[in-house]
Each structure stands twice: as structure tokens, then as C-alpha cells.
Write a structure and sequence with these properties.
Distance between the termini: 33 Å
Shape: elongated
Number of helices: 7
Low-confidence stretches: 1-9, 204-218
Mean pLDDT: 81
Number of strands: 10
Order of helices and strands: HEHEEEEEHHEEHHEEH
Strand content: 35-45%
Helix content: 25-40%
Largest sheet: 7 strands, antiparallel
Radius of gyration: 24 Å
Number of domains: 1
Length: 218
């Protein structure tokens, strides 16, 4: 039976390979805001020492991202509005690209002394009034959370997801092409990689082979 399944999956893979492997039409997979924030915590917050919290309120076509930082005695919570421009998830790439659509807002700030408070306020003034820029990208890039290119924020999850073999194995079977934001959810658009699924079937032990049972003579 194992040989039969292997040969069958091989033949099917050959047919599907001609179609590029991803032969199913693009489908939508809705992920809740709660799931998205749990993912941020597990794969970003828990891996970046100075980040106390990172979560988002998701709305139609945009999200409000909150980041709580604890750096050298400075404890601050910031918020910013972002648009999701790109989301690509597969076994080789795990990337989100955001466009900042609002200035960074300081929700809360606590300082270890008056000099730190003065320095913080001066830095905000310098970026906004002198450089005419928002400091968020520089702050997050400084602590290796995102990379800034052409005023866009690139969040590369491969640094963390790439270390998890089970996640990479799953991403070999599902190719996420893009995503859109809707109220309280992230809708992922992607294809199922049937070639990878059949490869998995072809390499799995056969549990359907029956073991002969001896007849009992009465």
C-alpha cells in the first residue's frame, strides 16, 4: 500500500508541477485580531528585549499599532496608524510591509530623571520640526524590530519563524500572497500548495495496511 500511495502521489505531483504547484484558486482565510496579537507577542515581543508590549487594533484597511518600550529607565507607550501594503508568507519569505499614515502619538511616558525627560522631548521636536520626519521608524530600526526603506516599515518575521521547523514545514504547503485588513480581523489571501501536501502523503507511513488475523478453530 505504501508503494501504491508513493507512486500515485508521484504521478499526481508531475501533473501538478506543470501547473506550478499552486493549482488551487486563491482563497481567503480570516484571522482574528486576538490571533494576530498573540502572534506578535510570541514571535516579536518575546524576542525583543526592550519591547514590553506590541499589539494592534485592526480596522477596515488600516490598523493602530501600540508599542510599549522600556529602554534605560525610559518607559513609554507609543501608537501609530499603519496601512498593510504587503504580506508574503512561504517557506522562504515571511515579510510584512507597512506604510505609516499618522504621526506617532505618545500615550504614556515615564522617565528616570529630568534630564531624560528633556532629552526625549527635544528628540521629538528635532525629528518633527527640524527633520520633518516621524521618529517611529528610526526607533524601531535602532532596536532591530523593523527595517526602513523608502519610508516604509519592513517587518521580517524570518528571524523568528525561520527557527521553527514545524512552521516552515507548514509554510511549504500554504503560500500567502497578500492580506487585507477588515474590522477586527486580518484576511489572508493565499494558495494551498498541493504538491507539498501530496509529497507529505507520499512520505508518511501507511497506517491503512491490515494485519492478517489468524482464524481460531472451534
Amino acid at each position: 500500500m505504501q508503494t501504491l500511495i508513493s507512486n500515485l502521489s508521484k504521478r499526481i505531483r508531475e501533473v501538478y508541477r506543470k501547473a506550478g504547484g499552486f493549482i488551487e484558486e486563491e482563497r481567503e482565510f480570516a484571522l482574528s485580531q486576538v490571533f494576530l496579537n498573540a502572534t506578535f507577542k510570541r514571535f516579536v515581543t518575546d524576542n525583543v528585549k526592550m519591547l514590553e508590549d506590541l499589539h494592534a487594533d485592526v480596522h477596515d484597511d488600516w490598523l493602530r499599532l501600540y508599542a510599549t518600550l522600556n529602554v534605560k529607565g525610559l518607559y513609554t507607550t507609543l501608537s501609530v496608524d499603519l496601512k498593510l501594503l504587503q504580506m508574503e508568507l512561504n517557506k522562504d519569505t515571511q515579510l510584512l510591509v507597512f506604510e505609516q499614515i499618522s504621526q506617532t502619538q505618545v500615550i504614556e511616558a515615564k522617565f528616570k530623571n529630568i534630564l531624560q525627560k528633556i532629552g526625549f522631548k527635544f528628540a521629538l521636536f528635532f525629528y518633527r520640526k527640524i527633520l520633518d520626519k516621524d521618529p517611529l521608524g528610526t526607533i524601531l530600526q535602532r532596536f532591530n524590530v523593523v527595517e526602513v526603506k523608502d519610508d516604509l516599515l519592513y517587518l521580517d518575521l524570518n528571524r523568528w519563524l525561520g527557527k521553527n521547523p514545524s512552521i516552515i514545514e507548514t509554510l511549504a504547503k500554504v503560500h500567502v500572497n497578500h492580506a487585507v485588513l477588515r474590522e477586527a480581523e486580518l484576511v489572508v489571501l493565499g494558495n494551498v500548495n498541493l504538491e507539498a501536501l501530496f509529497r507529505k502523503v507520499g512520505s508518511s507511513p501507511d497506517d491503512t495496511e491490515a494485519t492478517p488475523v489468524s482464524k481460531t478453530t472451534t
